[in-house]
Design goal:
Layout lengths: L10 H7 L3 H13 L3 E2 H8 L4 H11 L4 E4 L5 E4 L3 H5 L6
Antiparallel strand pairs: 1-3, 2-3
Helix pairs in contact: 2-3, 2-4
Length: 92
């Protein structure tokens, strides 16, 4: 099994990724879209003019909160690990 898979990493790492404003906007935009988006469409939705910064932050989310789908077009879709987070929280 891959120890770098999200199920095997501490939850603090996932939450740290979302401490960045652009990354949080990316995850929100994907979640609100409810369907895969082309990279260019996603960048428009988050209103990020700097393509380098956008790509850097998108790569950071890959495998945690987004999945890239390749085909005729390159699309990104949200991967929100609710069950992963719930499995690591305790009831109070």
């Amino acid at each position: 099994m891959d120890d770098s898979a999200p199920d095997h990493r501490p939850p603090e790492e996932a939450f740290a990724l979302l401490g960045n404003d652009l990354r949080l906007r990316i995850v929100r935009a994907l979640s609100e879209a409810g369907e895969p988006l082309p990279v260019s469409g996603l960048r428009e939705r988050v209103e990020e003019r700097d393509s380098g910064r956008f790509n850097y932050d998108l790569v950071k989310l890959d495998g945690w909160f987004v999945t890239r789908a390749y085909g005729l077009n390159h699309h990104i879709r949200a991967e929100i690990f609710i069950s992963w987070i719930e499995s690591r929280t305790t009831s109070f």
